[in-house]
Amino acid sequence: MLRIYITGTPGTGKTTVAKNLSRNLNLDFLELNDLIIKEGLYLGYDINRDTLIVDDELLTKELLRKLRTTNKICISSGMVLLELPIDYIIILHSSISTLRKRLETRSYSEEKIESNLEAEIMNVLFYDFTEFYPPEIIYEIQNDDRSIEDTCKQIISVIRKHSLGITE
Ligand SMILES: Nc1ncnc2c1ncn2[C@@H]1O[C@H](COP(=O)(O)OP(=O)(O)O)[C@@H](O)[C@H]1O
Ligand SMILES: [Mg+2]
Fold first, then answer.
1. Contact at 8 Å (CB) between 14 and 6?
2. Which CATH architecture has domain 2-35+71-155?
3. How many other C-beta atoms are found inside a 10 Å radius of the C-beta of residue 67?
4. Among residues of the chain, what percentage have pLDDT more than 70?
5. Would the pLDDT of 167 be above 80?
6. What is the DSSP string of 87-140?
7. pLDDT at 168 over 70
8. How far is residue 62 from each of residues 31, 57, 67, 148, measured CA to CA in Å?
9. Is residue 14 lining ligand 1, measured as CB closer than 6 Å?
10. Is the pLDDT confidence value at 146 over 90?
């Protein structure tokens, strides 16, 4: 059984890393945003924040259903969902300059870029996840512009160590 949740501020490399890791470890890859759109798991669109208003309850229900059908899965998502049956939460990080460069290639407003950079600086996701999940399954991994394979290797290494009961 291997259920990995790859998260991070937009632009930290969730999708790229999760796809790669799924290929390496032979896991089902799930882009949570795609599921939300495909299954209509949203309530509307927040124009001010330029983001979908996700129906957390419906999404959690759908995700639990999915997690029941597979136990080898890698999920890519920037959302904090509670009480999911997952084995590892990997929070990706990138330096602020790298992140800014990556976000500038998207059609984000300067305001949206700034708010994402701020979330990364404050490490918001880490604090949110540690509130709801046991700290021993949460790992923070740096993903700057070194190779994606390196990042995946590092993730595989922490998983291996954890499953062997090795703590650093
Ligand atoms: N290790 C890396 N080295 C170089 N470029 C990377 C790396 N990881 C991600 N990227 C690039 O950064 C951009 C954002 O990655 P993406 O996976 O879309 O992030 P997210 O899903 O977290 O928003 C993409 O253009 C991707 O190719
Ligand atoms: Mg993505």
1. yes
2. 3-Layer(aba) Sandwich (3.40)
3. 16
4. 99
5. no
6. SEEEEEE--HHHHHHHHHTTT--HHHHHHHHHHHHHTHHHHHHHHHS-GGGEEE
7. no
8. 13, 9, 9, 30
9. yes
10. no
Residue having the nearest C-alpha atom to atom 10 of ligand 1: 13
Q: HSE (CB half, 13 Å, CA atoms) of 55?
A: 15
Contact of 76 with 9, CB cutoff 8 Å: no
Average per-residue pLDDT for the chain: 96
Q: Is 94 exposed, middle or buried (0-12, 13-18, 19+ CB in 10 A)?
A: buried
- Structure tokens of 23? 């290929």
**Domain parsing of the chain, residue ranges:** 2-35+71-155
Q: What is the atom index within ligand 1 of the atom nearest the CA of 8?
A: 22
State which ligand 1 atom lies nearest to the alpha carbon of 143: 1
Mean pLDDT of the 94-120 span: 96
Query: How many whole angstroms separate alpha carbon 77 and alpha carbon 75?
Result: 6
Question: Is the shortest distance between the CB of 145 and ligand 1 below 6 Å?
Answer: yes
Average pLDDT over residues 57-64: 97
Rounded Cα distance between 53 and 2, Å, is 29
Residue 143 to residues 56, 138, 152, 154: CA-CA distances in angstroms?
A: 28, 16, 9, 10
Rounded to whole angstroms, the Cα distance separating 24 from 75 reads 14
Which amino acid appears at position 62 of this protein? E
